[in-house]
Design brief:
- The structure holds 2 protein chains of 2 kinds.
- Chain A is mainly alpha-helical.
- Chain A has one domain (2-285): ABC transporter involved in vitamin B12 uptake, BtuC, CATH 1.10.3470.
- Chain A is 75% helix and 0% strand.
- Chain A has 12 helices and no strands.
- Chain A is globular, with a radius of gyration of 20 Å.
- By secondary structure, chain B is an all-alpha fold.
- A two-stranded antiparallel sheet of chain B has the order 1-4. A two-stranded antiparallel sheet of chain B has the order 2-3.
- Chain B has a single domain, classed as ABC transporter involved in vitamin B12 uptake, BtuC (Orthogonal Bundle).
- Chain B contains 14 helices and 4 strands.
- The N and C termini of chain B lie close together (12 Å).
- In chain B, a hairpin with a 2-residue loop joins strand 2 (168-170) and strand 3.
- The chains are: A mainly alpha, B mainly alpha.
Chain lengths: 299, 358
C-alpha cells in the first residue's frame, strides 16, 4: 500500500515534470542558439495560449486556429529578432536578458489588450481523469491527460532532435551556438538563424501553452509557469535539450515527493521554493547544471 | 560657462581625494539638499509628500542596494523584494518585542537581519555565476515570502498575516504626518547614499568592481573572492532591508508579505537599468522615473479622455502601461545601455564647453 502510494506520487511528479520540461525547452532553444536567456518565454506561452483559445472561442476550427497561432508566433519571433535583438548585437548577455524582461512586459500587456484578461477554459477532448484499467489493476491513479502530455513532450523532443541533428538548418543552428563569429565566417546568416530559433521557440511555447492551458485554464497565472521552469533549466543546464527533460523529471518528482513526505513537517506550501532548493543542491556539485557546457575561465 | 572647472586647482591630497571634486557639484548638491529639506516640506501637499516623494526616496534606497550588488559587484539578483520584506518585518518585530528600543536602532538591526539573510543566499554565488546565480536568488525571493507567511511569529500571529507598523517616535518627537515621515526618510536616505558613494570609491568598492569586471582576474591579483562577494551581498541586503523598514513604517503603514512579490524585485531591477547600472545617481534617477511614470500615464489617459471624449478603461490603461514600460526598457537598452546617469554625464561634458565651445 505504502509502495503503491509512493509509486503514484512519483509517477504524478514525473509527469508534472514533463510539463515543466515543455516550458524549459523553449528557454533552452533560444539560449543554445543565441546565448540569450529569454525571460519572455513564460509570456510567450501565455500569449500563444491566449491567442489560440480566443480564436477557437470565436468559432475557428481547431487546426485553423492552431495554424493561425503558429503563424502569429513565427511573426513574433521574426519581429523580436528585428526590433530587439538586432540592435543589441554584441551587447553583454545581461543587457540582452534585461531586454527580454522588457519584452515579457510588452507581451503580457499586448495579449491582454488584444484578447481581454478574463480566464478561459480549454478542452482538447482528452479528459483529465485517472485511467481506469490502471487504477483497477494496480490501484494506481495516473491521469490520462498527463500521459498524453508526456507523449506530446516526447514527440516534441524527437522532432527537435531531428531538426537539430539531421537538417541543414539544424547544423547551422549548432554552428551558431558553438561560435557566432566562426559561423558568420563560413557564411551562415546569423539573423536568419536567430529568427528561425525564435520562431521555433514560439512553436514550443504554443505547445506548452496549450498543454498548460488545458491543465490550469488560460489565464494570467500562466506566465508564472516560466518561474517553475527556471529551476528545471538550471538543474539541466542551459544548453541541453536532454537536460531540460531530465531536469524536469527530477524537479517534478522531487517536488511532489517533498510535498507529500516532507510537507507535513513544515506546514505545507513548500512547492513554491522547493524546486529551487533541489536545483541549488545540484548546482553546488555541478555549477553548470547536469548537462550544461563546462566553462573554463581564462584571464 | 557655469559648469567650468578650469582654475580649480588641487593643492593638497585631501582636496584631490574629496568625494565631489568639482566645486559646482558641491554647490549644486548643497542647494538640492537644502531645497529638499527646507522648501519641499513647506510647499508640498499631503499627496505629493506622502504618495510620491516618500516612496520615491524609499525605492531609491532599495535601488541603491541592488545597484551595489548588481551594478558594482556584478552579481545579478532577483530577490531584492525579499530583503525588503525581511527589513520590514524584522523592524516591526524589534519595535514590538524590545520595549523602548529607539526606532532608528530597530531599523539598523532590521537591516542587519536582512544582511544575514543576504549572506546566506549569497553563498551560492561562490560556486555559480551569471544567470545560474540569478535563478538561484529567486529561491531567496520565494523562500522568504513563504517563511513570512508560514510562521506566525513574524506577523505577531495576526490571522491575515498583515502587520501594522508602530508609530515612529524619536526622542519624544512623533513622526506622524506625511511631511515628518518624508523628512525622516530623506535623512536616512541622504546619509546612506553618501555612505554608499564613499564606499564605492574605497578599497572595498574597487574590489567589487574588479569582481564585476572579471572575477578570475580579480582573484588572481589577490582580492579575496569569498569575502568580497559575501560583503557585497551583505551591504546590498542591508540597504534593501532598511529600505523595506522605511517602506513599512514611513510609506505603507500596513504591510503584508505579498507586497514584496517578485514584481517589486523586477521594478527595482528596472530602476537600476533605466537609471544606470553601477551609478549612485542612477538609482535615484531610475527610481524617480519608475515611480512617476505610472502617475504620468494615468494623467495622460485622463487628458485623452477630456480632449477626445474617448473613455479609456482602467484595464486598458494598465495593459498599455505594461506595454509602454516594456517598450521603454528595450528602447533604453538599445539607445543608452548605461541609462539616465550616462545621459546626465554627457550633459555635463557638453556643459563644460557650453556656450563657448572654442
Amino acid at each position: 500500500m505504502e509502495l503503491i502510494f509512493f509509486i503514484e506520487v512519483l509517477a504524478g511528479g514525473l509527469l508534472a515534470g514533463v510539463m515543466y520540461a515543455l516550458v524549459a525547452l523553449g528557454f533552452v532553444l533560444i539560449y543554445k542558439a543565441s546565448g540569450v536567456f529569454n525571460f519572455a518565454q513564460g509570456s510567450m506561452v501565455f500569449f500563444a495560449a491566449l491567442t489560440f483559445v480566443s480564436l477557437t472561442e470565436r468559432g475557428w476550427n481547431f487546426w485553423l486556429a492552431l495554424a493561425a497561432t503558429l503563424a502569429v508566433m513565427v511573426l513574433l519571433g521574426v519581429a523580436t529578432e528585428r526590433v530587439v535583438l538586432r540592435p543589441l548585437v554584441n551587447q553583454a548577455p545581461i543587457t540582452l536578458f534585461m531586454a527580454t524582461i522588457g519584452l515579457a512586459f510588452v507581451l503580457e500587456g499586448l495579449s491582454q489588450l488584444l484578447w481581454g484578461s478574463q480566464p478561459h477554459g480549454l478542452e482538447l477532448g482528452i479528459p483529465d481523469v485517472p485511467m481506469e484499467w490502471l487504477s483497477r489493476k494496480w490501484n494506481v491513479n495516473i491521469s490520462q491527460f498527463d500521459l498524453f502530455a508526456a507523449f506530446v513532450a516526447g514527440a516534441l523532443v524527437a522532432v527537435l532532435a531531428l531538426l537539430f541533428q539531421k537538417t541543414r538548418i539544424g547544423r547551422a543552428l549548432r554552428a551558431v551556438a558553438d561560435d557566432h563569429q566562426a559561423a558568420l565566417a563560413v557564411g551562415i546568416p546569423l539573423q536568419h538563424i536567430w529568427a528561425i530559433v525564435w520562431a521555433v521557440a514560439g512553436f514550443v511555447a504554443l505547445v506548452a501553452g496549450v498543454m498548460w492551458g488545458v491543465r490550469n485554464g488560460v489565464q494570467y497565472a500562466l506566465t508564472f509557469v516560466a518561474l517553475k521552469a527556471l529551476p528545471v533549466l538550471i538543474l539541466g543546464g542551459f544548453e541541453s535539450i536532454l537536460g531540460a527533460i531530465i531536469g524536469g523529471l527530477i524537479i517534478g518528482a522531487g517536488e511532489k515527493l517533498a510535498e507529500v513526505y516532507l510537507g507535513p513537517y513544515v506546514g505545507g506550501g513548500i512547492e513554491s521554493w522547493f524546486a529551487y532548493v533541489i536545483a541549488l543542491l545540484f548546482l553546488l556539485v555541478r555549477p553548470e547544471g547536469l548537462f550544461g557546457e563546462k566553462h573554463i575561465d581564462r584571464v | 560657462m557655469l559648469y567650468r572647472e578650469a582654475g580649480q586647482f588641487k593643492s593638497t591630497y585631501a582636496e584631490d581625494q574629496q568625494i565631489f571634486p568639482i566645486r559646482q557639484d558641491r554647490i549644486a548638491l548643497a542647494v538640492f539638499l537644502a531645497f529638499a529639506l527646507l522648501v519641499v516640506p513647506a510647499i508640498g501637499n499631503q499627496y505629493w509628500l506622502g504618495a510620491l516623494l516618500t516612496p520615491f526616496l524609499i525605492f531609491s534606497l532599495a535601488a541603491l542596494g541592488l545597484n551595489i550588488l548588481t551594478g558594482y559587484a556584478g552579481q545579478l539578483s532577483l530577490g531584492t523584494a525579499a530583503f525588503m520584506a525581511v527589513g520590514a518585518f524584522m523592524a516591526y518585530n524589534f519595535v514590538l518585542r524590545v520595549p523602548g528600543i529607539p526606532i532608528l536602532l530597530a531599523f539598523v538591526l532590521a537591516g542587519i537581519c536582512a544582511a544575514a539573510v543576504g549572506i546566506v543566499f549569497g553563498l551560492p554565488s561562490l560556486r555559480i555565476k551569471g544567470f545560474y546565480l540569478a535563478v538561484a536568488t529567486l529561491a531567496c525571493q520565494f523562500f522568504v515570502l513563504w517563511a513570512l507567511q508560514r510562521f506566525g511569529w513574524f506577523s505577531n500571529h495576526s490571522t491575515s498575516g498583515v502587520i501594522t507598523a508602530q508609530q515612529i517616535v524619536i526622542l519624544g518627537y512623533a513622526f506622524d504626518t506625511p511631511a515628518r515621515k518624508y523628512l525622516l526618510t530623506l535623512g536616512v536616505v541622504a546619509v546612506m547614499a553618501l555612505a554608499a558613494k564613499n564606499l564605492m570609491r574605497s578599497e572595498t568598492g574597487r574590489a567589487f568592481m574588479a569582481v564585476r569586471d572579471m572575477d578570475v582576474a580579480a582573484s588572481v591579483i589577490g582580492i579575496p573572492m569569498m569575502r568580497t562577494k559575501l560583503l557585497a551581498f551583505a551591504i546590498s541586503s542591508f540597504y534593501c532591508g532598511v529600505a523595506g523598514a522605511l517602506h513599512a513604517f514611513c510609506y505603507l503603514g500596513t504591510v503584508e508579505p505579498e507586497a514584496y512579490s517578485l514584481d517589486l524585485s523586477f521594478r527595482i531591477l528596472f530602476m537600476i537599468i533605466i537609471g544606470g547600472v553601477g551609478s549612485i545617481l542612477g538609482a535615484f534617477l531610475g527610481a524617480a522615473f519608475i515611480t512617476l511614470f505610472p502617475i504620468f500615464l494615468n494623467l495622460a489617459s485622463s487628458w485623452v479622455n477630456e480632449f477626445f471624449g474617448v473613455e479609456i478603461s482602467h484595464a486598458v490603461v494598465s495593459n498599455l502601461e505594461s506595454i509602454i514600460f516594456g517598450g521603454l526598457i528595450i528602447f533604453f537598452l538599445i539607445v543608452e545601455p548605461q541609462g539616465l546617469a550616462r545621459l546626465w554625464q554627457i550633459t555635463k561634458e557638453k556643459l563644460r564647453l557650453w556656450p563657448f565651445p572654442h
